[in-house]
Amino acid sequence: MGNAAGKPAFLVGIDLGTTNTVVAYANAAKAADGQADIELFAIEQLVAPGEVGARPLLPSLRYHPAAGELAAGDLPLPWPQQDVEHAVLGAFARQLGAQVPGRLVTSAKSWLSHANVDRQAPILPWGADADVAKVSPVAASASYLAYVRAAWNHRFPHAPLEQQELVLTIPASFDEGARALTLAAARMAGLPTLRLVEEPQAAFYDYLHRRRATLRADLAQTRRILVCDVGGGTTDFSLIDVAFDDDGAPQLTRSSVGNHLILGGDNMDLALAHLVETRMAAGSEGGMKLSAARLSQLMERCRAAKELLLSSDAPDSVTVTLLGAGSRLIGGSRSADVTREEVAALVVDGFFPKVELGDTAKKGRAGIVEFGLPYAQDAAITRHLASFLQQHQGPLPDTLLLNGGVFRADALARRLAETLAHWRGQPLTILHNDNPDVAVARGAVAYALARRGQAPRIGGGSPRSYFLVLGEAGKDHRAVCILPRGSASGEEIRLTERLFALRLGRPVRFHLATSLFESGTPPKLGEIVDLNAGEYLRLPPLASVLHASDGNDKREITVQLATVMTEVGTLEVHCVAEADADQRWLLEFQLRGEEETQADTSSVPPRVKEAAEKIERIFGGKAQKVETKEVRQLRQHLERGLGGRESWDTPLLRQLFDALMLRARGRRRSAEHERVWLNLAGYCLRPGYGDALDPWRIEQLWALFDAGVQHHKDNQVCAEWWTLWRRVAGGLSSEQQLRLLDDFAFNLQADAAQRGSRPVTLVNGSDDDMLRMGASLERIPGAYKAEVGAWLIKRLQKADKRGEAADTNTLWALARVGARQPFHGSAHEVVDSDTVADWLHVLLALDWKKVEPAAFAAAHLARMTGDRSRDIADDLRATILARLKAVGAPPLWQTMVSEVTQLDETATRRMLGEALPPGLKLIG
After folding, report:
1. Which residues is 227 bridged to in the sheet?
2. Where are the alpha helices (DSSP H) in 163-316?
3. CB 431 within 8 A of CB 399
4. CA angle (304 as vertex; 302, 306 as ends), nearest 5
5. φ, ψ for residue 584 (rounded to 5)?
6. Cα separation values, 520 from 479, 481, 536, Å
């Protein structure tokens, strides 16, 4: 326990880094007396077989050994093992990963912010063989925290880590999703209660604590500080403004934070690995392109070479050796020399080039793409910095604090300082960071001390007041102040004077507003203001469905509001049940960058009420005499009032879907009713995501699935049923898509006897219906997609034997099933590249001049992603590209095969089978 009163004995800061995990701490009792020193926690870890050593850095690495690879005596730790897979963590994992390819988990933190994969699915090591145990990015992150917890609790058994005051650091640019996953990892590790603080802030807190005695003199000439934090996987920029109170003491306010950049030391190691790979291939017959696993192994070798060659006492050159695999461990090894000048040119000039302040980061493909991670497209950190400073107006920073392991290289620190000095026209003040590897962890402790008033704090509080709009936005102009200007970050404020009615189990929207220009006394907590009487900005609403813990939804309860402005840029609003304060519902509003964010101005056409009335007339609860022709023409009637349906944007489409869903029972009145309802509902909810409430809408729609259709003997009704699910497939979970796959398989494979005993609720589907729907199931495992693709290939081969032209729909479906870059699915579930190569050979046997869709399919199967685990071999790529050029295929198809690029609107429409709603753009 902490002490007799149950208070924490220690303040603990944890830097869960891309490259290393670091822990620092201070004695809480001494902190109260102002005597606390911040210490580093030496983490015991395996450093060699059977050897444990305590080191301040725990490499954020997991090695997954093969069965029997390591003896039990090789892995002794002073505490009981919790990992049933016996993964090796830390320094020894790095050593093993350098020897054996494809078994080392790296950069789990970078994966947490990668929205194009399922971050809770076991996908790491990325591109590893099927027999290698895999772990999710969240679970990998949790394992590092759990390891730290075990090491701490072994050393401090009477002060368990989970009972201490914990601060966990995250990149300043992490979005809400990545922050939530970080907290989920902490909970998995047995650390449910902690605070988050941004890494650049933590680095600056470390400086403030170390220099607290001389801070006034140190910052006397400073007005704006740039904190540049370049870690192993991410780059963060933050601006901190400095003012002085009447006594001359510095007052610090963080004013700006940059966008998320997956750009850091890993990218530099990868660039160097590409250079070494090319050099090694020069001496190999037929060249040598490494697999994703072997390239990862080479990166580890190049990281060590980079750090050595960029150090102050660097040698002239270093030999990088990549061991052979398997029985050719020694004989199959290859080596290449890398010089200090080459590394300087590659890393310093490649990642920190001399640029002008007016330059902006390139948007096209210019950066390195590898391992499935969406690395920043422009590798030039100095250009990203120029863009950041252009976006955040005000004076250029006059002071610089550098953090991150890459700045141990003097050449990189010098180049960045020189670039900023060039932009300003005069030198900067450089704040000394004595140890960039550990500054963030120490700063997390300094932040905890600052919260207790025992160290300098970055203050200022909320720069604006925030208000919750009462009633319906746009109609009610009253709002209640829930966070007055100047409220301190990280401290919860309870609005006890006012009660609110909260609706559970149904969609609700919460609208915020903020003051644009405030002077004088800020409004008080709970004060009602008139939004029309001052200068206020309405912010985008938060839509959600809140559920009761006891499952008793669809009711209203009385709540109070509790608000807190977090250190990571979110306004948290808790709805606290008046009758039971333990019942809380959390709403999080992202406030960072609000100056660039416009309010939700998607206007609903004035005739939308008439459209709802038309839907009510056809499908409403009151029986109305409606001719079949009127039912059939509902879409045309809607278009007369709302314009052509291709112009309906997402807000309008979702309102129409809601109107249809509310009257879903009316679809059963006739086959014509059912056809029209299914067609319109699918069209209005496509592609199943894009609006905050779409998950709830999918949940309501999916409730209809088991019942099937009413008019199951009507072929058009059945076809519209499968069209509906194809259109919304992007919003379905993997479990729901697998359920669709079961029906897909039955409709294609069932014999006459099985069809005769088909349950009425299992809707019949033609081969074409199944083909288009099955190809849209991107969240099913890659092995199942391969089976669907095999069926499509057989269709093509049968048609060829009969002398028939290849079916356009079959080729389209093959392109979708084998696509290298999914639209809504996770990249780890694509069909393996060897299988896709076999399919491409079948396509190459077709005449692409006569069968244009074959060229379309081939372009998508051969599309370059930059990820070696998904991309086809270079020689096959060259063959496909040559054929595309020979038949005069569209330039975009050729570009898709030759480089990483985005699809245009026409290609997206063809690949999806129809256009996306206006204003909805696929970024995957």
Report:
1. 238, 401
2. 176-188, 199-210, 215-218, 265-281, 292-309
3. yes
4. 65
5. -135, 140
6. 19, 16, 16
Helix (H, G, I), strand (E, B) or coil at 280: helix
Tokens matching residue 707: 């019942």
pLDDT of residue 56: 96
Give the residue from 373, 477, 519 showing the smallest Cα distance to 870.
373
Q: Hey, is 686 helix, strand or coil? A: coil
Region of 26 on the Ramachandran plot (φ > 0 left; ψ -120 to 50 alpha; else beta):
beta
- Amino acid (1-letter code) at residue 291: S
Q: Are strands 507-510 and 542-545 parallel, antiparallel or unpaired?
A: antiparallel
CA 535/CA 514 separation, integer angstroms:
9
Q: What is the pLDDT of residue 34?
A: 67
Q: How far is CA 49 from CA 70, 300, 371, 517, 767, in A?
A: 9, 19, 29, 63, 58
Number of helices followed by number of strands (H, E) in the chain: 31, 29
pLDDT of residue 639: 92
Beta bridge partners of 494: 562
List the beta bridge partners of residue 575. 561, 585
* Helix (H), strand (E) at residue 43: strand 43-48
Nearest to 823 by CA among 700, 909, 694: 909
**Taking CA 540 as the corner, what is the angle to CA 536 and CA 546, rounded to the nearest 5 degrees?**
120
Helices (H), 728-848: 734-749, 752-756, 767-774, 782-801, 808-817, 833-844
> Helix 381-391 to helix 410-424 angle, to the nearest 10 degrees?
40
CB 310 within 8 A of CB 295: no
Query: pLDDT under 50 in the chain at which residues?
Result: 1, 4, 327-331, 365-369, 593-603, 921-924
pLDDT at 861: 96
Task: Specify whether the CB–CB gap between 265 and 302 falls below 8 A.
Answer: no
Measured distance CA(48)–CA(32) in Å, rounded: 41
The tokens describing 125, both together, are 């090591």
CA distance 755 to 435: 71
Alpha helices in 401-438 (DSSP H): 410-424
| Report field, pTM of the whole predicted structure over 0.85 | no
Beta carbons of 23 and 40 less than 8 angstroms apart: yes
Please give the single-letter amino acid code of residue 449: L
CB atoms within 10 A of CB 359: 17
897 touches 864 (CB < 8 A) = yes
* Nearest-angstrom CA–CA distance, 208 and 582: 37
- Sort residue 349 into left (φ over 0), alpha (ψ -120 to 50) or beta: alpha
- For 659, 694, 711, 719, the CA distances from 667, given in Å and listed in that order, are 12, 21, 10, 15
- Which pLDDT belongs to residue 84? 58
User: For the chain, what percentages of helix, strand and coil (3-state, to nearest 5) are there?
Assistant: 40, 20, 40
DSSP category for residue 283: T
User: For every residue of 51-108, which 3-state class applies, written as one string?
Assistant: EEEEECEEECCEECCCCCCCCHHHCCCCCCCCCCCCCEECHHHHHHHHHCCCCEECCH
Nearest to 726 by CA among 691, 688, 757: 688
Predicted pLDDT at 331: 45
Is the bond into 463 cis (omega within 30 degrees of 0)?
A: no
CA dihedral (259, 265, 266, 271) positive or negative: positive
Give the integer Cα–Cα distance in Å for 58 and 41.
Answer: 10
- Three-state secondary structure call for residue 409: coil
The SS3 of residue 253 is: strand
Which residues, including other chains, have CB under 8 Å from residue 456's CB and lie 6 or more apart? 208, 209, 212, 215, 252, 450
* Angle of CA points 123, 129, 131, to nearest 5°: 95
